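dumping this here before i forget
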Amino acid sequence: MSQALFEREANGRHQAESAGTTPAEHVHPEVVDAMRELGIDLADRTPKLLTREAAEHADVVVTMGCGDECPYIPGKRYLDWNLEDPKGKPLDQVRRTRDEIAARVRALVAELDGRQQQLL
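structure:
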């Protein structure tokens, strides 16, 4: 959800990759349904494993409760978004998580846009 919401909000100004410490084989159906309500189709996306190499390429690493399992890269900026895992939850709970992620993504993109403007 976070990558797709970020891509929509950033509209090509910034890039995102999503990965997890214990990725599933597919995006959970309840997540697919909640995102489809926003016109975002995740049915063909495949969860990926979070690696040290992926974290090294990021300017900001956003974690969602992975704790010590997340690779730590000194000097990287980390944000921990402590959110409920939507797996197996009723659609109304998944919507709340989706909407919370969307709000955080909007704030992050706005911050990144501001930093980009300062560099120009």
